[in-house]
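Blinded run. Sample ID left blank on purpose so nobody reads anything into the name before looking at the predicted structure. Input follows.
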Amino acid sequence: MECRVVFGSNEIEYSVKFSKRKTLVIKVCPAGNIEVLAPVDATSEAVKQRVLKRAKWILQQQNYFKQLGERSPEKRFVSGESHYYLGRQFLLKVEEGKPNSVRYKGRCFEVMCTPKSKAKSLMKMWYRSHAKDKFAEYAEPIIARFAKYGVTPSSLYIQEMESRWGSCTPKGKIILNTQLIKAPRPCIEYVITHELCHLLYPNHTKAFWELLHKEMPDWERWKNKLERFML
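Blinded prediction complete.
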């Protein structure tokens, strides 16, 4: 369902998808479009009021993605490009040859493949493999800390996501964006902590923010740093 609201001098268009969920979620995608995921019993007016309440944030996110797109051209995965891993910048070197491989040496990613066009898929596989290991390693002590609150995630899962760094399901599954592996470790720990807080408080209530601050007092620093990394 396509809808629109007026906020000041701005017209905000958004699409609504109803499903068997308990909470309403607003997503701003990198392309600038807005998706609202709402419970089946939510009224159009209730959705509209929530969008209006979040209008300032929505416009900020749209502007953020617009600026990000202007300064971050799409990667071509060719020699000479810069790519990130755990917050460090690496120069990409692609050579044609076998066997297909990816390794980082010094401050360089060295990719061997035939043809060279396979570099993108190889790098994505490499990132995913390292994300799986590193995210589990970083999450373990944080999950242990949250045991005192009586919550434990049912699983930790990674996947590519366009508009968010992490999410959690009502059944306790925490999902982390594979792209997080490019950010510094504290940024990754911030997202993990944020999602664990959601296991106790599904919405961004005062209690949620108090718990997040208690468990990670400098979370705002790492959130701001994370926002400078491209999705």
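Unblinding after everyone has recorded impressions. The longest strand covers residues 10-19.
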